[in-house]
Structure formats: structure tokens, C-alpha cells
Amino acid sequence: MTSYVTCQTPGDTSWFTHDRFGMFIHFGLYAMPARHEWVKTNEKISEEHYDLYFKHFNPDLYDPKEWAKQAKAAGMKYVVMTTKHHEGFCLFDSKYTDYKSTNTPCGKDLIKEYVEAFRSEGLRVGFYYSLIDWHHPDFPIDTLHPRRDDADALQQNEGRDMHKYAEYMRNQVTELLTNYGKIDILWFDFSYDGQDGEGDQSWMKGKGKNDWEAEKLIATARSLQPDIIIDNRTDIEQDLWTPEQYQPVKWVTHPETGELVTWEACQTFSGSWGYYRDEQTWKSPEMLIRMLVNTVSCGGNLLMNVGPTSRGYLDSRAEDALKVYADWMKYNSRSIYGCTMAEPGITAPADCRYTQSADGSRLYLHLFAYPFAHLRLPGMAGKVEYAQFLHDGSELLFTEGAIDHFSAKNETEDSSDLILYLPAVKPSS
Ligand code: FHN
């Protein structure tokens, strides 16, 4: 999924664009059924049964310090954790609801411990806050709601007041941005406007910026933490972006302001954001690295997700995936941090990606397939002063626009990345 950080963030977003790589954490009651964070609505689980998860929620092995250490080792520089997902369960001690972690056997404000743990490892901290809330009595039943097919859904929906729910969100965002110190990112999720149900079920319509009272919600956040980076899944600006803008060969600019867009892709190791015990689809180590490289080669950030178990720890599959990043970033992080897409006019060969240092002096060539003896670099003849492998700094000969041999490494090793020093080429200002 791609989310876009708006250019309208008044604060300094240069740290965000420099850091490029963050950890996403989806944790909540849905870790107990362990069948996807949408399990309540996917399986239309009854309120009575879902309350069993609330009654027995006790992540006794919750250890965000351990998560933070692994995120830091993986090269992640910031983190965004769910404070409340669509199920409506709050991982923080809110005074506006009883549906919270402090009222379960867990008994703790999990967000407080999360913030302290990741700050202690030097990561910037963000909050995910769901606009959707399948538990709140004033959140109207709609096309996505678990109760949508209940015989009395229409009657249940009468009297639900979306304005009261919008006020509830503003009150909780006020708590989150008041009680936990400086927060760097606020990640709202998500609008689905205009999708009315079939036929006469217009009461099931989707929800967008007017339903969330998004202008007031964002104004509330900015009044408390003016420099906070806010994504645009409240639908305020969603319509300004179109996927074709994310072409590796183009600087992505805001269609109105012309500013270089800061944007972020979010992804997960498997097919689920929340812990999914029997999940079979896990991305390969190569895919994990390519997703990071590809995102930065298009001028964006990657927010990579983990879903802790309901005991509160990261399972071995998640830990193994984080280790893949740690091993790769050890030698290759300089091709990620402070880098962006290659400047206009520089196009990577097939099965390769370029990332370029912010000052334009270094072009990193990422090999998604190990080339044969020669690798021709279109348009680079006469523009490269020096070339070397990134992993060990060993020199590579570059003549007439081509790296002229790869005999230095056999093909069994991981395809390494290269640095091309381009003192003659400076990005257009
Ligand atoms: O519905 C959510 C989903 O559960 C998850 O939180 C993702 C993360 O980007 N956002 C929504 C789907 O786009």
C-alpha cells in the first residue's frame, strides 16, 4: 500500500526524506485470533465472541525494547505503531473509552512503553490511529462493518451520531499528542468515500473527509504538535496523487506547488499486517531488499510492518526478515540514507535501479540481476570519474559508458551494488 506524506507539512520533513526506512507495527486484540487484523469483519465475529479476546488479552512477553533493538539493527530510523486499529481497541490509557489495554489482564499503557523503548534506541516515533472504529457506538454501520449483515443492522444504525464519533477522535488525538511527548508522525487510516452499498442501502455508504471532519481533526493535531508529519489518508489530498507519478525516471513533484513530493510506501513481510499464525505467503529476502531499493529509487520511503504475537513478542519469521535487512544495510545503507531517485536523464539499465546521493555526486547502481561480463550504462559515457563495488570498495573499471568486467566476483555471491562517482554531474537545482 502507498500512503503519501503531504507536502503541506509545515515542519521540516528533511529527516523523513533522509531516513527513508521505518518500522510499522500492527498490534491489537486481532493478534489473538491470529487470522489477520480484519478478522472481526472478514468473519463477522459476534461482539460476544470478540469480547473474549478483550477478556483474555495479556501480552505478558510484551517487550518493545527488544523490538526497538531489532528495528535499529535493521537500519530502521523511525517507527509507527497502532494506537487503535479498526477494531476500536485502544493500546493507550484513554479517558474516553473503557475499551483499552489498561482494562484487560494486560493492565498496561502499551503505547507509553512503546514510545519510551524506541526513543531510547534513537528512533523517531509515530502513531497510527484508525479512522474506522467497529466498536464505537456512534460509528455508523457501513459496507465494511462487521455488523453489516445483521438482521437488525438498520435499527442498530439508527441514532448513531458520526459527529459524536468525530469528536471522540479529536479527543483521543489530543490525548495521544499531549501525554507522550514529541511525536513525529501521525498516520491516519483510511477513507473509502462514495462507495454506497447496493440498491437502497445508502445508509451503508463509505466514509471520507467530511465524515471524519478531517479539517478539524488535522487542525487539532497541528495545534498540539505543529511540526508533526501527517499522512493524507483522511482524504484531504488523496485525489491529488496518481500512481503514474511514481516513475523511477521522474522527480515526483506536487501537481500544484511543484515541490518535490515526500512520499512513503508501506508494506508487510507477509499478506497480513496483524500477526497471522498460519500465514503461508512470506516475501523472500531478495524481495525485501528490492522493495527498499525500489522505493528509494522512486524517491520514496519504505515503512515495513511487523505484527507481534498476542504474547507480545516478534515471531521467528519476523525476526528473520529483520535480520535480512540488518545484514544488507550493514554494507549498503549509504545507498539508502540521504538518497533519492536518479536525477532526470539518468536511466538505469534493465534489472537495475539507481539511487543518487542528495548532493548528486554519487550514483548507486543496484543490480537486481547479476550481469554478464559487461554492463553498459546508458547515457553515462564520460560522466563517471571512478567506480567501485559498494560492499568492499574494490575498484571497477569503467570505460566508454560500461563497467567492463565482473570477473572480480563469481555469480554465486549476492549481486552487490556499485558506487559510481559522478563529480562532473550535478543535479539541476
Ligand atoms: O485496513 C488497513 C489495514 O488493516 C492496514 O492497517 C493497512 C496498512 O497500510 N491500512 C489499511 C488498508 O489500506
TrEMBL record:
One of its GO terms (cellular component) is lysosome. Pfam families: Alpha_L_fucos. It comes from the Bacteria. The record marks 266 as: May be important for catalysis. Keywords: Glycosidase, Hydrolase, Signal. Its EC number is 3.2.1.51. The keyword Metal-binding does not apply. GO terms for biological process: fucose metabolic process; glycoside catabolic process. GO terms for molecular function: alpha-L-fucosidase activity. InterPro entries: FUC_metazoa-typ (IPR016286), GH (IPR017853), Glyco_hydro_29 (IPR000933), Glyco_hydro_29_N (IPR057739). The keyword Signal applies. Residues 14-333 form the Glycoside hydrolase family 29 N-terminal domain. Alpha-L-fucosidase is responsible for hydrolyzing the alpha-1,6-linked fucose joined to the reducing-end N-acetylglucosamine of the carbohydrate moieties of glycoproteins. Belongs to the glycosyl hydrolase 29 family. This is alpha-L-fucosidase. It comes from Eisenbergiella tayi.
